[in-house]
Amino acid sequence: xxKVRGLAALSKGAPFVRHDFTRRSVGVHDVLIDIAYAGIxxxxxxxxxEEWGPSIFPMVPGHEIAGVVREIGSSVKKFAIGDHIxxxxxxxSCRDCQPCRDGLExxxxxxxxxxxxxxxxxxxxxxMGGYSNRFVVNENYAVKIDKTLALDGVAPLLCAGITLxxxxxxWKVGKGSRVAVMGLGGLGHMGVKFAxxxxxxxxxxxxxxxxxxxxxxxxxxxxxxxxxxxDLTPLxxxxxxxxxxxxxxxxxxxxxxxxxIDGTLVVIGLPGAPYPVQVGALLNGRKSLAxxxxxxxxxxxxxxDFCAQHSILSDVEVINAEYVDEAxxxxxxxxxxxxxxIDAKTI
Length: 347
Ligand code: NAP
Ligand code: ZN
Ligand code: ZN
What we know:
The chain is of the alpha/beta class. It has two domains: 2-158 and 315-346, Medium-chain alcohol dehydrogenases, catalytic domain (Quinone Oxidoreductase, Chain A, domain 1), CATH 3.90.180; 161-291, 3-Layer(aba) Sandwich (Rossmann fold), CATH 3.40.50.720. It has ten helices and 17 strands. Strand 11, helix 6 (212-218) and strand 12 (222-225) form a beta-alpha-beta unit. The longest helix has 14 residues, at 297-310. Bound molecules: NADP nicotinamide-adenine-dinucleotide phosphate and zinc ion (2 copies). The site of one zinc ion has 5 residues, from loops.
């Protein structure tokens, strides 16, 4: 077995405590990772607080993992000791269904195996995530990281990065596209960087005036503060694609009017409760309301390589283990620039 130091919530919403546990021994297709950094995604907070339904405790969250390969199994082909490596939101899938064969493991017919807060495919092991010092994973569920990329800024790419890259590629965003990103948090700021790098005209729709300068520096062309529905009136029929990354319950109907004819609003933020949609707002302009969830392993690798080519990293605030509870509070208050990343040495 592999001994691991982690940070766990022992019950719903409980403060984090140090938690020792074991992972499986390194199998022939596995790699053992010395974790360098783990990002704090708002999905971690939703799950620790059971905003998506019952969770499994003790919970070691963390699905934005960047580190260094420490040991490899005898059949491992993709990685060598010392390689930089990343693990994201899932660590396994059935490997056999059509989505898995198509590289869409996140939409596996049998359900992807999450990196934590889930029982693994052996039916027994409770998956423990990246707020820890070591990780064991099958080599096919990890990606290679170019060594020119700083690992602290890489960690959030494994969830926040791919979750915005994937819909931008799916909806074929490029030069001339007009894209809006709702919410400039961990996910949103990656959306701005990617959409800009792809040549789109990018507008941020935010409720935080204090983020204006940063958004423009990241590549946004416009920054609009939205407090009231009328703040969106001048933007009627402006966007081909809107990426909604807002983590809280909001009225998305007022945003539908800002789509062009045939435009699409992609729901990415997942506050946990259903919200109403006025179908009339979709009909008028043949608009689409869609969803998107992370991305497959092949596309995560493509996104990491794109980041290496374009020198794209997440803007991070590196923190020690002791600060995680406060980091949660600040994330919920939209007060992070733009992703908290735990230095695993401090766990
Ligand atoms: P985050 O860093 O907390 O960012 C969310 C942003 O939403 C905030 O920075 C803020 O942006 C805006 N916001 C928050 N509360 C708001 C409110 N009351 N009214 C209006 N705007 C508000 O969170 P994240 O890690 O980016 O995650 C965002 C959401 O995506 C979460 O629900 C998460 O669970 C979900 N998620 C989905 C996927 C997927 O695959 N679909 C993957 C990862 C995460 P401004 O300050 O700019 O307004
Ligand atoms: Zn996430
Ligand atoms: Zn499958």
